Amino acid sequence: MQTEQTTLAENQAEQQTFFESRYANSPNEVKGMDTAQLRQNFLIETLFVADQFHWVLSFFDRYLTGGVMPVDGPVTLTTPDQLKAEYFLERRELGMINVGGAGRVIADGVAHDLAYKEALYIGQGTRDIQFISYDAESPAKFYLNSTPATKNYPTRKVSRTDADVVELGSMGTANHRTINKLLVNSVLPTCQLQMGMTELKTGSVWNTMPAHTHDRRMEVYFYFEVPEGQSVCHFMGQPQETRHIWMQNEQAVISPNWSIHAGAGTSNYTFIWGMAGENLDYSDMDFCAITDLK
Questions:
Q1: pTM exceeds 0.85 for this model
Q2: What is the residue-level pLDDT of the chain in tens, covering all 294 positions?
C-alpha cells in the first residue's frame, strides 16, 4: 500500500487532524491489485469523526478529500505540515457540501449558514476558517474538497435553488437521476475545483451510465443517503479492464483520470462528485459504450 499516514495534535486538549497521502497509480499497477489493495489505494472509509479533520491527499492533481463534524464547539481549520504552507488556503481553494445537521462556516470573519445539501466555495487566500454545528445532537457534517489554486475568487454560498439542475436517465434503465451542479463554472468562478450532487430517484440504482473517462480531470465520488443495510458497488478501471469496490454510507472513492467512475446500489442513494484538472468543461467526457465495458 503506497500511503503515508500522520496524526497531528499539539496537545491532548486541542483538536486532531488526520492526514494521509496516497500516491498515484498507473493502469498497469491497478490490473494486478486484489480487493484489499484496491480498497487501500482508492477507498476513503472514514471522513467524519467528532471534532476532527480527516484528510486524504491524492497525488492525482493533488486533490484533497476531507470531512469535519463539529460537536463540542467550533473547529478551526489547521494547516497540515505536508502542505508546506503558512495557512491552508495559501495556495489552495476549498469547496464543501453539508451532509449533516444545520451548521455555520466563518471565513475571515464572515459567517455562512449551511443547511442540509447546501454548498460553500471559499477562495484562495482566505486565512481563518471555523466550522460550527448548531445542535450537537444533530451535528453538521462538512464534506470537503480542496485543490491547488493560483487566483482568489470570491467566497460564495450556493443553495439548492442556485444550482444548475439537469435531469438524466429513465426508470426503464434504472438510472433516473437529478444532477445538481453546485460549485461549477456555470454557477460561480473557480480555479479548477468543481463539485456537485447527483440524487437517484426511487427505483433507480445506476449512476454515470453510460460510463466515461476524461484524461483532463480526475474525480472523487462521495456516497451518502445509502439506507442502513444497503451498499453501493462502485466501478473503476479502464473500460476494457474494470474493477469494483463495495462501499458503505458516507464513504468516498478516488477516481484517476484514466478510469471510469460509475456505480450501482442495492437501493437508490445520493453522491457528491468533485473534480479537478486542466479545464472546467463539465461536458469534457470520453464516453464508453455500455456493451464495450469488460
A1: yes
A2: 444 444 443 333 356 899 999 999 999 999 999 999 999 999 999 999 999 999 999 999 999 999 999 999 999 999 999 999 999 999 999 999 999 999 999 999 999 999 999 999 999 999 999 999 999 999 999 999 999 999 999 999 999 999 999 999 999 999 999 999 999 999 999 999 999 999 999 999 999 999 999 989 999 999 999 999 999 999 999 999 999 999 999 999 999 999 999 999 999 999 999 999 988 888 888 899 999 999
Contact between residue 283 and residue 230 where contact means Cβ atoms under 8 Å apart: no
- The ranges assigned to domains in the chain are 3-8+17-35+44-157, 161-292
Superfamily (CATH H level) for 161-292: Jelly Rolls (2.60.120.10)
Distance CA 38, CA 211 (A): 19
Same fold, 3-8+17-35+44-157 and 161-292: yes
Q: Where are the alpha helices (DSSP H) in the chain?
A: 27-31, 35-42
* Binding-site annotation: residue ranges: 212, 214, 219, 261
Numbered residues of the known binding site for Zn(2+): 212, 214, 219, 261
Q: How far is CA 248 from CA 95, 224, 228, 231, 232, in A?
A: 23, 8, 9, 5, 7
Fold of domain 3-8+17-35+44-157: Jelly Rolls (2.60.120)
